[in-house]
Amino acid sequence: MRTSWADSVANSASEIAVSDNSYVPRPTRSTYVPPHLRNRQASDAPNLPGPATERAAFTGTAGVSLGSRWSSGLPKPEMGRPGPGYGYSGAVAGRGGSGGGWNNRSRGWDRREREVNPFDDDVDDKTDDAEQAFSEQENTGINFDAYEDIPVETSGENVPPPVNTFAEIDLGDLLNQNIRRCKYVKPTPIQRHAIPIALAGRDLMACAQTGSGKTAAFCFPIISGIMREQYVQRPRVARTVYPLALILSPTRELSCQIHDEAKKFSYQTGVKVVVAYGGAPINQQLRELERGVDILVATPGRLVDLLERARLSLQMIRHLALDEADRMLDMGFEPQIRKIVEQMDMPNRGVRQTMLFSATFPREIQRLASDFLSNYIFLAVGRVGSSTDLIVQRVEFVHESDKRSHLMDLLHAQRENGAHGKQALTLVFVETKKGADSLEHWLCINGFPATTIHGDRTQQERELALRSFKTGKTPILVATDVAARGLDIPHVAHVVNFDLPNDIDDYVHRIGRTGRAGKSGLATAFFNEGNLSLARPLAELMQEASQEVPAWLTRYASRAPYGGSKGRRSGGGRFGGRDFRRESSFGKNLDYYGGGGNSGSGYGVPSSNYGGGYAPGVTSAWD
Ligand SMILES: Nc1ncnc2c1ncn2[C@@H]1O[C@H](COP(=O)(O)OP(=O)(O)OP(=O)(O)O)[C@@H](O)[C@H]1O
């Protein structure tokens, strides 16, 4: 009989109470170990130059062969510390991972009692209530059914099978507890497919709709992988730190958000997560790094800075994840990413594990990305670059000069419909930083509390603006594309594309700030003659997402040259994930998303045109 995830968590809790050979006792008292001695085996000889130990092998959980790339030929349990809890158990799914395959990292580094609880509540006191609520799915607000019918495409060799529940994957007790604290009842489709692939140690290029849980899909395997690894001795070079995993993201705010999430997932596991991003004092980040780091979440610029100061080495990186990977590999970031991944001291592809995630993946970017991957699996949940059906999309024809009054009408209507006279959160996207400031000012003087986020604001101002928006204190946020990707702000009811982007992928990410995690949302776009190149991809995208396409937009679409999409639309069926490796025609100067049949003018944009979809002369709003 299949047990539910909640059951398995309960079972594993009772197993903890029953001692057996693989029982990992919880330490009763924290033992402080200075940073330079952390993660060492008990018998480590001091002052060894370079990495002394390879990753230890681990195999056999839930039918998945784990960490295979490191396992061949390496010695087995002797690598671990002697005594209970450090052996190999081949822990069985459903036992919640309480077997001895897990490293009790807290043994030598018990930070559990000193760690700030990142959760609002203390689950230990509320376990029963919480479990009940999870089983009823009441306090998640997640409409899981919305994800059930999404088609999935995988390609690559020996793709590990997906799972249906967290219980089927042996992530370990401590991580399972945190998943429960996050109120995740069952994995979303991207998690069902990506987690077993990543746990098997495979490289992955994964594409899934905005708000569908990609962050956990790469964080869980990384945390679980680090927890499983036997103590890895890291080089000891004065003031240089050696993380085991690196997660790169394009914006400061997104890096902070991933860091917050990863900290929740790794709470009390002994896995230490640190964030480094530009615009914030580097000394503070250095101090934090020196306290110990297993997973580093970073923006590329600050990371390069740390590497050049020799305060950080990538020599021990086992897991590399690029969130918003297509953005990370477009013209703006690609040189920096190449430098980080190929020209510093990071282990080569095939030695490290590399995972790329995004909601959009143009073919040309897929091709670039393949340089970083080894024998990878391509996974697409839903159509690559599609938007979720959970978002109601509206397009209105609005002349440039009428945009402000039109926005005002929308905001008035929203205020009237809002609960308790409160304004629902509205995110308004504009093209330029100046435009953002000017619109914010105008909204404020017209009685609509608004704030802005863009690259010309100081980091402190940006963080303040985001907090004020998230808490509802300032319910309108006027933003450039710096807020387009990844940000997970609950209760964003409405995204307004005051200025449409030039690229349909940017549109997909922008509207994806609403309608997240199974909830519904509304997106309104102001379209006019300045957006003709977007007419076709926009009409197609809306059609795909079962949205009502206005007749005037269809007319524009039929007349318009195909642009605004880096040639992404192929006019194929409703679903088409499209691993570029499957396109035998690729490389013959066709469109990036496959199917050369539609490659009319505008298709096959050379890669030098990449830059986040900005037209010539328009400054990128990214930082
Ligand atoms: N299994 C789950 N059960 C319930 N909620 C989940 C689950 N997985 C993720 N979530 C929640 O769904 C929301 C969206 O997740 P996340 O930010 O990872 O999406 P994403 O796919 O990375 O989106 P984007 O493409 O915009 O970056 C978050 O609030 C997250 O906590």
Q: Briefly, what is this?
A:
With 623 residues, the chain is of the alpha/beta class. Helices cover 30% and strands 11% of the residues.
What can you tell me about this protein's structure?
The protein is α/β, with parallel strands linked by helices and 623 residues long. Among the domains are: 144-381, P-loop containing nucleotide triphosphate hydrolases (Rossmann fold), CATH 3.40.50.300; 391-559, P-loop containing nucleotide triphosphate hydrolases (Rossmann fold). Helices cover 30% and strands 11% of the residues. It is built from 19 helices and 14 strands. The chain has helices at residues 5-17, 68-71, 123-136, 145-148, 173-181, 189-199, 214-228, 252-265, 282-290, 300-308, 325-328, 334-343, 363-369, 403-417, 433-445, 459-470, 504-511, 535-544, 551-559, and strands at 152-155, 204-208, 245-248, 273-276, 295-298, 319-323, 353-358, 377-381, 391-397, 425-429, 450-453, 476-479, 492-497, 521-527. An eight-stranded mixed β-sheet has the order 1-8-2-7-6-3-5-4. Helix 9 (282-290) links the parallel strand 4 (273-276) and strand 5. The longest helix is centred in the middle third of the chain and has 15 residues, at 214-228. The protein starts with a helix and ends in a 64-residue tail after the last helix. The model is unreliable at 1-100, 106-113, 123-141, 567-576 and 586-623 (pLDDT under 50). The structure holds adenosine-5'-triphosphate (ATP).
Tell me the β content: 5-15%
Q: In the CATH hierarchy, what is the architecture of the domain at 144-381 at level 2?
A: 3-Layer(aba) Sandwich
The total strand number stands at 14
CATH fold descriptor of the domain at 144-381: Rossmann fold
State Rg: 24 Å
Largest sheet: 8 strands, mixed
Strand order of the largest sheet: 1-8-2-7-6-3-5-4
